[in-house]
Amino acid sequence: QLAVSTNDVRLERLIVDDLLPCLIWRLDNELQCATQSLRHESGSSTDGSVDKELHALCEDLYVYLVKDSDGEDKESRRAENNYTSWLENEMENLRVKAGSAAKELLEGSDWNWERYLPAYMEMLEQVDSMDVSDERDYLKEEALLQKLRPEFRSKYGINSCEHPYMLTISSLRQQQFYSMNGLIYQREKNKFLSKLIILKPYIKVSDCSSDIIRRLRDKSEIQYELPEWALLPSVDFLHTVLLLWEPVYHPLIRQSHMATLLWIVDHYNKGSN
């Protein structure tokens, strides 16, 4: 609820990338974890109700943070089938990762998830502490190694890029890069489109995209943080929306429908991404 209400990117990624996989791990009987071992040992009679509540929480996270907002009723059969398919796919992915993670251990070491978990959590912390930028440092092993804290490197003996943990850290950094930058780009695009809609004189379908971009550059009527390569696709995107809007509502009365038009652009933008 806090992530949805505050629209906080980092909090959303924490839930989707870290907390949600842990929840799915707990729900999958084919995956062994410490919480499942404790559950089986205790033989609690409340397991059924707990599983039901965890499934409900998992579905809520799927609806609000994973699935695109398309206005579909989450109780509908189609939405339920989508959630079930998604959950089964996520469980299968976790099983594959669990089976391959042992390859990262030093030769001769026995695989033990409970022993590996603290190190993995510290790797997550290391990656989370790095600044999010356009730099693809996950491709530059030496640069990524230098960004790790000295105490972390000393604790696990990470003295070179050949250390087995560097593969995991690089993968986590890549995931962070695409998830965070994707969300940031979507939000900047939405801000840009919202400013274009209210810009006067109003932009119309008949206006050429190149003329609109030239107008923005020459007159500096609005401030935007989108990269130059994203300007033309964003203007074309607005044209797509106006193509359906203008035959019904004339541009001169756009002000009275501004809230509705902004809502359409916001949801259309989320759906397209």
Automatic annotation (TrEMBL):
Example GO molecular function: nuclear export signal receptor activity
GO BP annotations listed: protein export from nucleus; ribosomal large subunit export from nucleus; ribosomal small subunit export from nucleus
GO cellular component, one term: cytoplasm
Domain of life the protein comes from: Eukaryota
PANTHER family, A to Z: EXPORTIN 1/5, OS11G0519500 PROTEIN
Protein name: Uncharacterized protein
Annotated organism of origin: Aegilops tauschii subsp. strangulata (Goatgrass)
